[in-house]
Structure prediction request, 152 residues.
Amino acid sequence: MGMFLLPVMAVLLPTSIVLGVLMLPTLAAGFVGRGRARMLAATVGMLNFAGCVPPLVELWGLGHTLAATGEVLGEPLMWFGPYLAAAFGWMIFLTIPPLVHRYYETVTNNRLSALRKHQDRLREEWGDEVAGDEAAADDTSADKAGEASAAA
Prediction:
């Protein structure tokens, strides 16, 4: 793969320089996110790359030269888009997983509560023996043994 990328980077040197500088947040995300590095780098990287499109279009419109690279990188607004997009990637990565976790936790707790209510209704209708609880079964067998000894 590296053998293929080196000639491409050499031919597209102005593009490689602009992307190399503007994609630094993605590189940082790859180093910072330890266990979840791929997810963080992918989230930040996709948005960071999307933010790099306007500077690349500007570079190509100016002639794709090293002088044009200096013009593009010398303009502060060209830095703003990619870095802001990368910041949104960080925000998405840091906020969405806890929100999804909280949602599924709530759904699971609601389902568990509904199942417990249903189990209680079944216990009322059929008795504790059908609940499958060993403690309830032990209590009823002890009650039956007590009733049998009292009857004898």
